[in-house]
Design a protein that fits this description.
Elements: H1 3-6, E1 13-14, H2 17-35, E2 43-48, H3 53-69, E3 72-77, H4 83-91, E4 98-101, H5 118-123, H6 137-144, E5 149-151, E6 157-159, H7 164-175, E7 189-193, H8 200-209, E8 213-217, E9 222-227, E10 233-237, H9 242-248, E11 251-254, E12 273-276, H10 285-289, E13 295-297, H11 301-320
Parallel strand pairs: 1-13, 2-3, 2-4, 7-8, 7-11, 11-12, 12-13
Antiparallel strand pairs: 5-6, 8-9, 9-10
Helix pairs in contact: 2-11, 3-11, 7-8, 7-11
Length: 330
């Protein structure tokens, strides 16, 4: 049975995401130390083309975390009108093994080239061999098809890259034993608030792929993600009421990028896991912790950075690592 089923008598508490991230950082550090010389470790480049203070803070976290695990990291700043060319330049740089762009850059501006928005267009400019965020069309399509592995140029199987913050949420739920070792999320109901293309939408699909019924709430709509007959997380129309859905949910994940937004506490039931993925706190923390047996995760950033590094290593091993030379014939 899961933790949220068996801890009914215990007090609510706050989970420090560092506890989740530590095991991954330790594993990454060990792998880097044993596999690479200091100046030959995989290199990640973060591209800043906006003035978002949270993006700059995230860049500093990423640099510090990479230094601790032995990976190489560099932040490059450019004007947003130069971003596309900078991405192509990094795609062609053999010394760069992972590229991430700190979004939003153009925000809601429509695309001048292709796709719905300029930001989505830029994400599709990143090579799949270096897309450490898993945001290009190839990886997003694989996610929605529940395709777990792709083939590289030599025909070898390479695990598909998943978006870092949604993946961090999954790892936190695994840590809390919300996931069942056999049935994964089968039988669980989860509410994800905010259907962004970077977090909310892919997260809902990932959780549905693992068996949950996921209610995806945005400003003016609600949709249900669940597995179809082919085992893929798919979008379904629903007439469900937001408040009723909250009351049925064992997990609530909120990522609304607005300082004033708060999830209504009267619909949060005892035993709920509440994960905040916004840079703003989407809940009254004191009120939430008065509800029996709630687990509150106020920040996921450190786990997101760990998943970023994990993705970088997977990209390097799958696409950049040179195959071992065949032994010389005698």
């Amino acid at each position: 049975r899961s933790k949220i089923d068996t801890m009914a008598a215990k007090e609510s508490y706050i989970l420090d995401a560092n506890l989740v991230a530590k095991a991954y950082f330790d594993q990454i550090s060990k792998q880097v130390k044993s596999s690479f010389a200091t100046d030959k470790a995989p290199k990640l480049v973060g591209v800043l083309a906006n003035q978002d203070p949270f993006a700059k803070m995230y860049a500093k976290w990423t640099k510090k975390a990479c230094e601790k695990t032995g990976l190489r990291y560099e932040t490059i700043e450019c004007k947003r009108t130069e971003l596309e060319d900078k991405v192509y330049e990094l795609n062609d740089d053999d010394d760069v093994h992972g590229i991430m762009v700190y979004y939003p850059v153009f925000g809601t501006l429509p695309s001048f080239m292709a796709g719905v928005s300029m930001d989505s267009y830029i994400s599709n400019c990143v090579s799949i061999e270096k897309d450490v965020e898993g945001m290009c069309f190839t990886y997003i399509q694989a996610l929605y098809k529940n395709t777990r592995a792709l083939k590289n140029s030599t025909g070898e199987s390479v695990k598909s890259i998943l978006p870092c913050t949604p993946l961090a949420c999954v790892k936190i739920l695994e840590y809390l034993k919300v996931y069942d070792s056999k049935d994964r999320l089968q039988g669980k109901t989860i509410t994800v608030i905010n259907r962004s293309q970077i977090v909310g939408h892919p997260l809902a699909a990932m959780l549905a792929n693992d068996g949950a019924e996921v209610y995806s709430k945005d400003i003016d709509s609600m949709f249900l993600f669940k597995k179809d007959s082919k085992g893929r997380g798919r979008l379904f129309e629903t007439q469900a009421n937001f408040e009723d859905v909250l009351e049925r949910s064992q997990v609530v994940i909120s990522g609304v990028p607005a300082k004033g937004y708060k999830v209504p506490l009267k619909h949060i039931k005892p035993g709920t896991v509440f994960i905040n993925v916004s840079s703003h706190e989407n809940v009254d923390k004191e009120g939430l912790l008065k509800i029996p047996n709630v687990t509150y995760v106020p920040k996921v950033g450190k786990v997101t950075v760990a998943m970023l590094q994990r993705n970088l290593l997977r990209l390097y091993m799958g696409y950049a690592k040179k195959p071992a030379s065949a032994p010389a014939k005698q």
